[in-house]
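Let's practice the habit of predicting before peeking. Look at the sequence and jot down your guess about where helices and strands might fall. Then scroll down.
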Amino acid sequence: QVQLVESGGGLVQAGGSLRLSCAASGRTFNNNYMGWFRQAPGKEREFVAAIRSGRPTGYADSMKGRFTISRYNAKNTVYLQMNNLKPEDTAVYYCAADGSRDNSGNYNLPSTYDYWGQGTQVTVSS
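Done guessing? Here is the structure:
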């Protein structure tokens, strides 16, 4: 059974940093997309960043230069380093993994991903 477990969320002041972790179990995703999405109250889930084969594949424009996605294959874990956080970054952050064999989906679309974590809350105060 595949599980994705996020951790690292919390309350931080504007300008601060957090590092989110997503530990995968049940299978490895080294050559598949793994991504981070977020959802704020009353808003749709939006793409944050994605990685595949150890290399970032993309970031949402508003996160470029502030967020960094990385992975540690030996631990089957993906990280999201978030710096210079802003109140508008407040949301539940979800980790996702693409279980397909051909990686044919678009990494920035939720529909590409087959597995999701339970989410971790990030709150940025002004």
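How did you do? Residues 37 and 48 are 5 Å apart (CA to CA).
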